[in-house]
């Protein structure tokens, strides 16, 4: 869910011919951060559907599809989440945006009140004294998601013009609450599966803390690539005119 948010918070819309309904922010605007946030907020309905203009579309935020998130922290923690469908991402709020066009560094906070999701999981982890392992269908929800995002861009020359690309993206996520239903835990033993899900949900803070670092890395790299695919179509001058 952070991909489109990061992209538009940084760049305020990236098109070779920017449509009139996209609020373009001047690089000399003394309230540049406020302008960017307003531009993003104006775009929220289009971000939800993914239909930015007649000839330009991006993956929609409602629902948001994520292919695969891999996490591997050794023998006691391996997890793969795939075919994820996430709802609620369009309800994001951007706060405390700091945009520096000299260094091309953008820092901001994102808040999401609630996300619901479904997909597939395959995991083998150790939580306290319990070894949890299984593969199957996953459903769940998380509430009060806070993210601190730092996007570092760099300029490059293409066809005699300056363009920018995302060099590095850092994401730090804090999730307040979560509930999960993992089918077929303990390899289709229904009793142990119920016990495992109960244990995970009673210790959701531990479960989320284990998942978060891998999720941060996977999302940051995935969305860095996605952002660069989109912003390559507009020069720096088109994105931020004087």
TrEMBL record:
Residue stretches spanning the membrane: none
Superkingdom, taxonomy of origin: Eukaryota
GO CC aspect terms: extracellular space
Record keywords: Biological rhythms, Signal
Any one GO biological process: circadian rhythm
Stored InterPro entries: Haemolymph_juvenile_hormone-bd, To_sf
Family: Belongs to the TO family.
Residue ranges that the Swiss-Prot or TrEMBL entry lists as coiled coil: none
High-level lineage: Eukaryota, Metazoa, Ecdysozoa, Arthropoda, Hexapoda
Endpoints of the signal sequence: 1-16
A Pfam family that the UniProt record links to this protein: JHBP
Protein name per Swiss-Prot or TrEMBL: Hemolymph juvenile hormone binding protein
């Amino acid at each position: 869910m952070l991909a489109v948010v990061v992209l538009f918070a940084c760049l305020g819309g990236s098109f070779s011919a920017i449509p009139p309904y996209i609020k373009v922010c001047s690089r000399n605007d003394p309230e540049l951060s406020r302008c960017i946030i307003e531009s993003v907020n104006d775009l929220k309905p289009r971000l939800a559907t993914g239909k930015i203009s007649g000839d330009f579309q991006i993956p929609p935020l409602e629902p948001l599809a994520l292919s695969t998130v891999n996490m591997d922290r050794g023998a006691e923690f391996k997890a793969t989440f795939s075919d994820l469908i996430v709802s609620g991402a369009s309800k994001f709020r951007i706060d405390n945006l700091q945009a520096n066009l000299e260094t091309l560094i953008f820092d901001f906070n994102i808040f999401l009140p609630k996300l619901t999701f479904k997909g597939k999981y395959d995991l083998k982890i150790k939580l306290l004294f319990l070894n949890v392992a299984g593969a199957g269908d996953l459903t769940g929800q998380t509430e009060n998601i806070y993210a601190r995002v730092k996007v570092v861009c760099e300029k490059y020359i293409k066809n005699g013009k300056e363009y920018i690309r995302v060099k590095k993206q850092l994401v730090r996520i804090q999730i307040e609450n979560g509930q999960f239903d993992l089918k077929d835990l303990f390899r289709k033993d229904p009793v142990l599966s119920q016990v495992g899900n109960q244990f995970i949900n009673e210790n959701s803070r531990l479960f989320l803390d284990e998942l978060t670092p891998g999720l941060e890395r996977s999302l940051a790299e995935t969305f860095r690539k996605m952002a660069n695919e989109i912003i390559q179509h507009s020069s720096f001058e088109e994105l931020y005119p004087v």
